[in-house]
Amino acid sequence: MATRRELIDAAIALIAERYVFPDVAEKVVEVLRGNDYEHLADIDEFAAAVTADLQSVNGDKHFRLLHEHRTPPAADPRHGFDKVEILDGNIGYVENTRLRDAANHGDIAAAAMTLVADTDALVIDLRRCRGGDPAMVSLICGYLFDESTHVNDIYARATGATDQFWTPPYVPGRRFGGKKPIWVLTSDFTFSGGEELAYDLQQTGRATIVGETTRGGAHPTDWHELAEDLHVTIPEARSINPRSGANWEAVGVVPDIAVPAAAALDHVLDLARNSRSEQGN
Predict the structure, then answer these.
(1) SS3 label, residue 231
(2) Dist. CA 207–CA 130, nearest whole Å
């Protein structure tokens, strides 16, 4: 393997060219150049020390040096949709732990969302969601609006272009629609694409967020190999919400109703059932 300095120099070149904020990249490069890592013989200690330095300037949690063997992801028979149920009171429940890419898993999203389309209220559980594909976020949102809706933009430094993300005008299966109540459950583990789904629905006023403030990662990332099993993950783009003009980076998605994550589902079910009782259903 290359020396620690050679690895750092390779990372510096990538960061200077690709990190989403050039001014932050300059400061991170200064930190990396100013520190000595040669004494860190253990590769995991080295990776941890560099990760701490990468995040020291602006706290970007997507910015990491990882020592791990990258293998194709294990088959996920649930495709990220860990639970899809209709609960007592005709309340739909969808738990997603990974927003898989829409191109290969969109049919599973369609099946999940169609199952809950005719429920009276919907709970989307993102408490264990660690992120995923922005296109899957837009697809899921497509089942929750009656019309095509602009939900997010992503600016990429490499191209200087901003891509718009809209809900599709047509979705396979059946829509839940744009009028019935939705609650989204979050935790301090919810990250990245999971945060985008919660934030998009919050900013459009389409859902009530219940639980804990999320981790705060709004910068899509690419992996770059520095050596065998050693990768630097560089945030190369950023989300821009078309309504707020901002995103959830560093601050997280702040819930509308703050409760401990473990209590969030019970809290929402009480709200939903009390609402039905008040309406005489």
Answers:
(1) strand
(2) 20
User: Which amino acid, 207?
Assistant: A
Q: Crossing angle of helices 102-115/134-142, nearest 10°?
A: 30
Q: Tokens representing 183?
A: 């609650």
Q: Name the E strands within the chain.
A: 64-67, 81-87, 91-96, 121-125, 150-156, 162-166, 182-186, 208-211, 221-227, 230-235, 237-240, 257-258
Collapsing DSSP to helix, strand or coil, 5 comes out as helix
Q: What is the DSSP letter of 160?
A: -
Q: Are 199 and 246 in contact (CB under 8 A)?
A: no
| pTM, to two decimals | 0.94
The number of beta carbons lying within 10 Å of the beta carbon of residue 170 is 7
Number of helical H runs and strand E runs in the chain:
7, 12
Contact indicator for 17, 35 with CB cutoff of 8 Å: no
Q: What is the pLDDT of residues 15-45, one digit of tens each?
A: 999 999 999 999 999 999 999 999 999 999 9
Q: Tokens 């899509």 identify what position?
A: 220
Q: Which of 196, 229, 213 is nearest to 264 (CA)?
A: 213
Alpha helix ranges (H) inside 35-171 = 43-54, 102-115, 134-142
Domains annotated on the chain, with CATH = 4-67 (no CATH), 81-218+237-278 (3.90.226.10)
**Which amino acid does the sequence have at 202?**
Q
